């Protein structure tokens, strides 16, 4: 009877913890994921309460299908390196949803499970808006650099034109009689 109560309390605490974690992840707009490298299984948690959890886990290759082809190898290598070295994995990469022309930028953070190091636990966040703002800021900086160069070139051209249009001043002693003695 004591064991049954203990198990019930543990199950209840686990359920409360899971709900709290899900709420925090949704509030922060995070997607949680787990990759079990030993069995090559990848689980992706639903991002909202309306989305049912996946019935079947994917393989890592299956999970990488929506990653932009140019980024797939880099993402896979980062995951394997994080597992092997037991260090954090922090990586930005592009996602391309099948049939959609838009590219989404994702920031993923993962850490090897402390029990055996065969699982990588992580979260992913859509950072497309931030990436767009960074690209716009870089374009604005490039335009500002160009405008500064053009402005400086205009100032230099005006200065040179002014000098060319002004007659050279004659030296006061050239061609004139010597100044009177005091």
Walkthrough of the structure:
This protein is an alpha+beta fold and 182 residues long. The chain has 4 helices and 5 strands, in the order αββααβββα. The protein has helices spanning 2-27, 60-63, 72-85, 128-165; strands at residues 30-36, 41-44, 89-96, 103-112, 119-126. Strands 2-1-5-4-3 form a 5-stranded antiparallel beta sheet, sandwiched between helices. The protein is elongated. The mean pLDDT is 82.
Q: Write down the secondary-structure element order.
A: HEEHHEEEH
**Structural class, judged by helices and strands?**
alpha+beta
Largest sheet: 5 strands, antiparallel
Instruction: Estimate what percentage of residues fall within beta strands.
Output: 15-25%
Proportion of residues in helical segments: 40-55%
Number of strands: 5
Which segments are poorly predicted (pLDDT under 50) over 5 or more consecutive residues? Answer: none
Tally of alpha and pi helices: 4
C-alpha Rg (nearest Å): 33 Å
Q: What is the rounded distance between the termini?
A: 126 Å
Q: Describe the global form.
A: elongated
Q: Report the mean per-residue pLDDT as an integer.
A: 82
Q: Strand order of the main beta sheet, please?
A: 2-1-5-4-3
């Amino acid at each position: 009877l004591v064991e049954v109560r203990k198990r019930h309390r543990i199950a209840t605490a686990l359920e409360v913890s899971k709900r709290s974690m899900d709420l925090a992840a949704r509030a922060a707009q995070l997607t949680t994921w787990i990759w079990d490298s030993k069995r090559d299984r990848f689980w992706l948690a639903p991002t909202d309460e309306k989305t049912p959890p996946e019935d079947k886990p994917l393989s890592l290759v299956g999970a990488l299908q929506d990653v932009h082809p140019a980024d797939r190898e880099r993402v896979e290598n980062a995951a394997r390196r994080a597992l092997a070295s037991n260090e954090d994995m922090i990586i930005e990469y592009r996602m391309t949803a099948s049939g959609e022309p838009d590219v989404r930028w994702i920031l993923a953070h993962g850490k090897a499970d402390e029990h055996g190091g065969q699982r990588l636990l992580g979260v992913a966040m859509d950072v497309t808006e931030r990436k767009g703002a960074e690209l716009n800021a870089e374009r604005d900086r490039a335009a500002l650099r160009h405008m500064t160069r053009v402005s400086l070139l205009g100032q230099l051209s005006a200065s040179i034109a002014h000098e060319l249009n002004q007659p050279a001043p004659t030296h006061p002693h050239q061609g004139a009689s010597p100044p009177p003695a005091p």
